[in-house]
Specification:
single chain; alpha/beta; 4 domains; 21 helices; 16 strands
């Protein structure tokens, strides 16, 4: 009787772990090692600095390598392994390039919240990059996507990883999971973001910014100390007695402001901030330590308003963009409101930047006046609103009520990126000490001259406050605008005996009042109206002195019609021109457009409700139109069977291109017509 011989241990190991398995594992680890070094070299702007990091902090480098290896090991699970390796590697390289570019502009490194802020505040991009640079970026992204598509089609398929490779993946992830808490405890100080990234590595630091959110209990917190403070009378503030003399508070947070006298290596032709210098001599003064450098105005606001330490929050976190969108916390505004104050926030930039339109209410402010509510302002050469417009807004906030007021105003004029080009006309204030670096000299002189204009605003504000009503300052609730509300048709047109006024997208606030003044001098102010859709309308009944806006449901329904009908008209004509005549083809056409336009309407509604309305919201039509085109291309190739698939694909591209271009011309008159008959 013959029995099969059992394999020896060495043979069983070789049968389990093949040369291909070993090769796959080594390839993954080697690629991770290379990527780890490449990302550090790009982020540090110097491969020599990256090599120094490898030798001075080898454990940190190896941990970052391990993180990258975990992401690369996912390629073992797919058939197009070479494509997956390339895609994951490209993501890491692109992230490091973006980090490098951001460091060159604002010093502080890239974190996850930068993408959140970028998506919701795309409008400020033009202040940092030119349109041709944006075009180059778009072309580069398009080229990268095209290359990835071609690589995907040409990459040969292989069998997904066998059990040994899966065990390697599990081992990498398990090892990372074990090491991560230890590494995180030893590398959690990101109060200085640049030092934190340089110390802990880009891969770890960026991944930490994705998952590390919320506030931690301060290490120095002592419950007994807090209870002692409360017992000594430090509890909730009580409303002040009517006879008690309380001051108004005006808090100015000046964008990128510092005293040029502290810069000893450069000499200015004159003092750029004489008003500020005089205030230092007349008033109490000191230095403010801020948690940010190069960017992050909102985080400075947060620490000032709340007294909380940003170091107790997640890595690179902007509380304005996370927890404060849904939670409140103790602030100076709430404390003063408990004492009978009215709290006002003012900022001469768009309301949605850093989600201030949502966050200020959570911080306890009763009103918020943003750029959309300001008139007769001018901008500097970079497009930032000049700070002198804040004078009138602050005075308005101090005049309308009997209550004492807290006014928290944030300026924007000193915002970068500073111009490195020589000015068309010489700056009033020049400098010496930077002649060996003309670009830096131009940037510095641009900066100090912006400081000078902000200082002039400070002087104008002080003069206006000193000339105010002797008995004190008065508050107002800023609703609507102070003059012509926005660019658009302020005369209106006759529509069936009704005067119809049309405004463009840009400048229409989310919350507003309507002010009407007759030739006889009679005036009327409406109640508060809210704009819930991109296309919005309001109707005034002059006889009844009422104003009404459609319900959100009705507004979104009308808006859906304004996008659907032009699409059906344009794409229907093209469908006929492409030779589609059957009932089935036209039914497919109708159903596909109902699905895609319905999805588009939902996306638009969510975007407007979450981020408000601005002219720059329209820029996000581009990726949505691309997505709609791809979806319809796939659906038409499969469902439009009257002609061949190639014709269906060409029709999908042509139809969406035409409707995207010509539809924008039709949507405004169509909306005008629908409103006039509704």
């Amino acid at each position: 009787m013959l029995q099969p011989q059992s394999k020896r241990p060495g043979e069983r190991a070789r049968a389990f772990l093949t040369r291909a398995d070993v090769r796959d594992a080594l390839r993954c680890l080697l690629l991770a090692l290379i990527l780890s070094f490449v990302t550090e070299a790009i982020c540090r702007l110097n491969p020599i600095a990256a090599a120094g990091y490898v030798f001075t902090r080898p454990l940190a480098f190896l941990y970052n390598t391990l993180l990258i290896a975990c992401t690369l090991s996912l390629a073992l699970l797919v058939k197009r392994r070479r494509f997956a390796y390339t895609l994951i590697s490209a993501i890491w390289v692109v992230l490091s390039i973006v980090d490098c570019c951001i460091r060159l502009v604002r010093i502080t490194p890239l974190n996850f919240y930068d993408f959140v802020i970028f998506v919701s505040n795309f409008s400020i991009t033009q202040s940092y990059v030119t349109w041709w640079q944006i075009a180059l970026i778009v072309l580069a992204v398009a080229a990268l996507i095209t290359g990835m598509v071609l690589l995907f089609r040409r990459t040969p398929r292989v069998q997904p990883a066998r059990r040994p490779a899966l065990l390697l993946l599990a081992a990498l992830c398990g090892l990372t999971a074990v090491i991560t808490p230890i590494y995180a405890l030893n590398n959690r100080d990101y109060t200085d973001p640049v030092a934190g990234y340089n110390r802990s590595g880009f891969a770890y630091s960026f991944c930490r910014s994705v998952v590390d959110r919320g506030i931690r209990r301060p290490e120095t917190y002592d419950e007994n100390v807090i209870n002692g403070i409360l017992a000594d009378g430090g509890g909730d503030a009580q409303p002040a007695a009517a006879t008690e003399k309380l001051p108004n508070f005006v808090f100015l947070q000046l964008e990128s402001f510092l005293d040029p006298a502290n810069i000893t290596s450069v000499t200015c032709s004159e003092n750029p901030v004489p008003v500020f210098t005089r205030l230092k001599e007349e008033c109490s003064t000191g230095l403010l330590h801020v948690p940010m450098i190069g960017g992050g105005t909102a985080n400075v606001e947060f620490e000032v308003i709340t007294g909380m330490n940003l170091g107790d929050f997640g890595t690179g976190e902007y509380p304005y963009s996370t927890i404060l969108k849904s939670e409140t916390c103790e602030t100076i505004a709430y404390d003063l409101r408990n004492m009978g104050y009215t709290a006002h926030a003012i900022h001469n930039h768009i309301a949605t930047f850093y989600e201030r339109n949502q966050v200020y209410a959570m911080l306890g402010f009763d009103t918020f006046t943003s750029l959309e509510y300001m008139t007769n302002y001018t901008t500097n050469s970079l497009g930032w609103c000049r700070d002198k417009v804040l004078t009138g807004c602050i005075l308005d906030a101090l005049r309308s009520g009997e209550e004492r007021d807290l006014v928290f105003a944030v300026s924007v004029q000193g915002h970068g990126k500073y111009s490195s080009n020589p000015p068309q006309t010489p700056y009033p204030i020049t400098s010496t000490g930077l002649e060996d670096n003309p670009s830096l000299k131009n940037e510095f002189e641009y900066y100090i001259n912006q400081l000078h204009e902000t200082d002039e605003f400070l002087g104008e504000l002080l003069d206006a406050l000193r000339a105010a009503v002797p008995e004190g300052w008065h508050a107002c609730t800023a609703q609507g605008t102070n003059g012509a509300p926005m660019w658009g048709d302020l005369i209106g047109s006759d529509a069936g005996g009704v005067r119809l006024h049309s405004f463009r997208y840009h400048g229409v606030p989310d919350t507003y009042r309507i002010i009407l003044v007759t030739k006889s001098g009679e005036s009327w102010v409406s109640g508060v109206l809210h704009r819930a859709t991109l296309q919005s309308s309001a109707t005034v009944d002059w006889a009844a002195r009422t104003a009404n806006a459609p319900s959100p449901a009705m507004a979104y329904a009308l808006q859906f019609l304004c996008t659907l009908l032009p699409t059906l008209l344009i794409e229907g004509l093209l469908l006929f021109a492409f030779g589609y005549r059957s009932k089935r083809s036209w039914l497919v056409f109708l159903l596909v457009n109902l699905v895609t336009q319905g999805g588009f309407a939902v996306y638009l509604a969510v975007t407007v409700l979450n981020h408000g309305v601005s002219g720059w919201s329209l820029i996000f039509y581009i990726p949505i139109e691309v997505i709609i085109t791809l979806v319809e291309l796939l659906l038409y190739r499969r469902l439009l069977t009257e002609k061949n698939k190639a014709r269906a694909a060409v029709y999908a591209i042509a139809a969406n291109l035409c409707s995207a271009v010509f539809g924008l011309w039709l949507i405004d008159p169509l909306w005008h017509f629908i409103v006039s008959i509704s």
